[in-house]
Design goal:
single chain, mainly alpha, 2 strands, 71% helix, Uncharacterised_15.3kDa, DUF5331 domain-containing protein
């Protein structure tokens, strides 16, 4: 499972309280395309717990650039999770549908 998938799975499971932090607490980052995502420090904390080996990658990144938004961008996690979840679910459904279709020919 990719880091992006792990993050989206975490976000989906915890979206009720994450949305409160973002909307009422102001813990969000504005993206260039007028979308938002959770605060970069939150994303970095979560993904470092979800992917423990990431700490070895983050150390050199942090030495080069301490800008947390740039780190999230380098990890490919600077996107609106609500929009990505919609795409992610559609891809999973299509994949499951394709798998079911192929099973017909294997039996």
């Amino acid at each position: 499972m990719s880091l992006k998938d792990k993050w989206l799975e975490f976000y989906e499971t915890n979206r009720s309280w994450l949305k409160i932090l973002m909307e009422e607490g102001g813990y969000y980052t504005s993206l260039d395309n007028k979308e938002t995502c959770p605060d970069s420090m939150l994303i970095l904390g979560v993904v470092s717990a979800l992917e423990p080996s990431l700490k070895e990658t983050l150390v050199p990144f942090c030495k080069l650039n301490t800008d947390e938004d740039a780190l999230v961008e380098a990890l490919g996690l600077n996107f609106d999770p609500e929009k990505e979840l919609t795409k992610w679910k559609a891809e999973k459904e299509k994949s499951q549908s394709d798998t079911e279709y192929l099973k017909q020919f294997r039996t």
